[in-house]
Amino acid sequence: MKTVLLLGGMTPDVTVLYYNIINRVVRAQLGGRHGAPLYLYSADLEAMIQHLGRGDVEAFARTYTDPIAALASRVDAVVICAILAHKVAAQIRASLPAGVSLIHIADVLASHVKARYPGVRRLGLLGPKATMLGGAEPDFFVAPLQAPEHGFEVLVPETEEAIEEVNRGMLEEVAKGAAAVTPETKAMFVEQARSLVRRGAQAIVLGSTDLGFVLTQEDVGEMPVIEPAAVHAEHVGLWVCQ
C-alpha cells in the first residue's frame, strides 16, 4: 500500500470524514483487518480563518508546509482535507520533494462528474466567499474546474448580498458544526441552491465539506448534490491500494 499525509483540521468533522472513508475503502478492497497507512496533521481552524481574514496567505500556507517538511520523506502523496485550504495548493506543491504528489480535489471531482454525470457541464457552487470567488487563482478550486482540460462552467450566487449571506452562514454557523446551523440559515442554503438550478446549474457542488452535514440531496430534489470531499476521500482510498 501507499502512504498518505492528510492535512486536516478545517474542520475536525471533515478530517474524521476523510479518515473514515479512506479506511472503509481500503477494508473493502483488501479485507477487514487492513487499514490505510496514514499520517495526520490537524490544524486549528480558528487560527487559519484569522490568517485568511488578515490576508496573510503565507502564514496560512505555513500551517501545512511546516508539517510537510517533517513528514514528506515518509509518504507517497499529500491530501488536503478541505476545499478552502486548496487556496494554498501551489505553495504545498512547491514544498513537496520529488516523487511525492498532491492529490488535488478539483481534479478528482472533475473526473468523478465526467464519469457519473457525463451530460453535466454547469456546476452550481455554494461555500465560503473565498472559494466561490476564487476563480482567478489557477491552483485553487474553481479555476481548475473551468480550465480547458476539464471545461466546466461554475455558477455562484448572483448578487453580492447573496454571496455575503452564504459566506456568513458558512463561517458563523456551518464551521461550528451542523448543530449550530439555524433553520433560517439552512432554508437560505436551500433557496440559494434552488436559485442556481433556476439559472441553469445541472448539479450543486458543496464548496465546503461541512455544508454536506446541512444541505442534502433531499433538500434540492432530483438535481445531483455533489460532496467533493467524500468523492476525494474515496479516490484516495483506492489510490492507497494501488
From TrEMBL:
Gene3D superfamilies listed in its UniProt record: 3.40.50.1860
Sections of the chain in a coiled coil: none
InterPro entries, alphabetized: Asp/Glu/hydantoin_racemase, Asp/Glu_race, Asp_race
This protein's UniProt keywords: Isomerase
Pfam families: Asp_Glu_race (PF01177)
Gene Ontology MF, one: amino-acid racemase activity
Protein family according to the UniProt entry: Belongs to the aspartate/glutamate racemases family.
Name of protein: Asp/Glu/hydantoin racemase
Taxonomic source organism: Stachybotrys elegans
